[in-house]
Design brief:
Layout lengths: L1 H12 L29 H18 L12 H17 L1 H22 L3 H8 L3 E2 L12 H9 L3 H6 L5 H23 L6 H19 L11 E2 L9 H5 L7 H14 L24 H24 L9 H28 L7 H31 L22
Parallel strand pairs: 1-2
Helix pairs in contact: 1-12, 2-8, 2-9, 3-4, 4-5, 4-9, 4-12, 8-9, 9-12, 9-14, 11-12, 11-14, 12-13, 13-14
C-alpha cells in the first residue's frame, strides 16, 4: 500500500504533458536557481547522487554464491559484472533469488538447529565435501550436519567481506535517497526521470539488503566438511525429471529460470552451485510460488514506480511515449503472466498447446522486457538535456528540521 501511495504522490507532483506538443518542451537548463530564497543543486549533484545510489543498489547489494575453485581475479570480476547487469536489467529476479535464499536459510536453521548464517552458507554453496563437491541440498545435509555444527558462526562471518555496519550504510544510502524524493514531492518540487528510475532501484535495494542481512558477502573460498555415518543415495540425489518434447523442454527451462528450480544441477559432479541457486524451500510448488511472488510482485512494483513519471514533462513526444509504453509494459507484464499461468501452468505439464502458449508468451516477454528496461535507462539520461528551473531547487530541510 505504501508503494501505491508513493506512486500517487509522485504522479500528482509531475507536470502535465497532455495537450499541445509544445507543452512537452522544457525550459532550458541554463535557467538560474534563485539561491537567495532557495538552496540550489546542480546537474552534477543530481547525476552523482543517482549514480552513487545505483552503485549501492547493484554492486554493493549483490551477495553472490560461492564461486568455483581456481577462478582468477578477472574471472571473478566478470562474474560479478554479469550479475550486476542482470540486476540493472531485471532487479526483481534478484529480489526473488534473495527471498528464496532467506526462506531456505530459515528452513535449514529450523530443521537442523543451526544459525541462519549457517543456513545461508549452505544454500550459497559455502560447504563442500572432501571430494570438492558442494553440500547443497536438503538430502545431503544430514550426512554433513555433524561437521557443520562444529563450525562456529563467527568463523563463517569472518569469511564475509561485509559486516552489519557496512550493510547498514548501504541500506541507509537507499533510505536517504527515498527520503529525499519524498521531501521533494512534499514541497512540490519535480523529480527527473533519472531520479524516478533510481527511486525504483533504491526501493528494491532496501528489500534485497534486508533479505540478505545475515548472508555472508563475497565469500571466495568454501569450508570443507567431512561426511558422517549417514549414507546418501547419489542416484536419488541426482534424479532429473524426464521431459517429453521440445515445448516441455523449453517450458521447464523457462519456468525453472523464473521459479528458481535447478532440476538439471548435479551436486555430486559439480564444484560450485549455479549463480542463482538456492536450496529447496519445501515442496516444488511452494518453492516456485514463493519465487513467482517475489519476481512478479516486485517486478510490478518496480514498473509502477516508473509509471509515476507518466505525466512528467519530456523533451519530445517520442520520449514521452517511449517512457509510458516501457514503464506500463514492465508494470503489466508480470500481472498478465500470473493471470496466464494460473489456468495454464499445471495443464502445460501434459498438454503441448498449453505449453506452446506459455512458451510463446514468456519468450515474447524475455525479448521485449529487456528492451523496455534499456529504453528506460536510456531515457533517464537523455531527458537530462532539458530540465525545468524548479528541478535545481533543493529541498528546504528546515521545514522538517527546525534551525537546520
Amino acid at each position: 500500500m505504501l508503494f501505491w501511495i508513493l506512486i500517487h504522490l509522485v504522479t500528482r507532483q509531475s507536470g502535465v504533458t497532455q495537450g499541445h506538443p509544445d507543452l512537452l518542451v522544457r525550459p532550458s537548463t541554463a535557467a538560474v536557481c534563485d539561491c537567495k530564497s532557495n538552496s540550489c543543486r546542480t546537474l552534477f549533484d543530481i547525476i552523482w547522487g543517482c549514480l552513487a545510489t545505483l552503485f549501492a543498489c547493484t554492486w554493493v547489494a549483490l551477495h553472490q554464491n560461492v564461486p568455483g575453485p581456481d577462478l582468477g581475479h578477472f574471472a571473478l570480476l566478470m562474474r560479478k559484472l554479469r550479475m550486476m547487469l542482470v540486476t540493472i536489467i531485471a532487479p526483481e529476479f534478484v529480489v526473488g533469488f534473495a527471498a528464496r535464499q532467506l526462506l531456505s536459510a530459515q528452513r535449514i536453521s529450523k530443521e537442523f538447529d543451526v544459525s541462519k548464517t549457517h543456513g545461508f552458507f549452505c544454500t550459497m554453496g559455502g560447504f563442500v565435501s572432501e571430494e570438492g563437491h558442494p553440500v547443497s541440498s536438503i538430502k545431503q545435509l544430514p550426512a554433513y550436519m555433524l561437521a557443520i555444527r562444529k563450525i562456529k558462526k563467527a568463523d563463517i562471518e569472518d569469511k564475509s567481506k561485509g559486516d552489519a555496519l557496512s550493510k547498514g550504510v548501504a541500506i541507509a544510502q537507499g533510505l536517504w535517497f527515498v527520503t529525499q524524493c519524498l521531501a521533494r514531492i512534499s514541497q512540490h518540487l519535480p523529480l527527473t526521470e533519472l531520479e524516478v528510475a533510481t527511486l525504483a532501484f533504491a526501493v528494491l535495494s532496501v528489500i534485497i539488503h534486508l533479505l540478505w542481512l545475515q548472508k555472508p558477502l563475497d565469500v571466495q573460498q568454501p569450508i570443507v566438511v567431512a561426511r558422517s555415518e549417514v549414507e546418501i543415495d547419489p542416484l536419488q540425489e541426482e534424479g532429473i525429471t524426464p521431459i517429453k518434447n521440445r515445448f516441455h523442454t523449453l517450458w521447464q527451462k523457462l519456468a525453472g529460470a523464473i521459479g528458481g528450480e535447478h532440476n538439471e544441477y548435479p551436486p555430486f559432479s559439480s564444484t560450485s552451485v549455479p549463480s542463482f541457486y538456492s536450496i529447496e524451500i519445501g515442496t516444488k510448488g511452494t518453492h516456485t510460488l514463493v519465487n513467482l511472488a517475489g519476481v512478479y510482485g516486485v517486478g510490478s512494483i518496480f514498473g509502477s514506480i516508473h509509471c509515476a513519471a507518466w505525466n512528467a514533462l519530456f523533451p519530445s513526444m517520442a520520449e514521452m511515449w517511449m517512457w509510458r509504453i516501457s514503464s506500463a509494459f514492465i508494470a503489466a507484464y508480470p500481472v498478465l503472466t500470473i493471470l496466464l499461468m494460473i489456468p495454464l501452468g499445471a495443464w502445460a505439464q501434459d498438454n503441448d498447446i498449453a505449453a506452446a502458449v506459455l512458451v510463446s508468451f514468456m519468450l515474447f516477454g524475455f525479448v521485449v522486457y529487456p528492451l523496455c528496461r534499456l529504453f528506460l535507462i536510456m531515457l533517464s539520461f537523455t531527458t537530462l538535456r532539458s530540465l525545468p528551473p524548479s528541478t535545481f531547487v533543493d529541498v528546504n530541510w528546515s521545514n522538517y528540521i527546525p534551525h537546520l
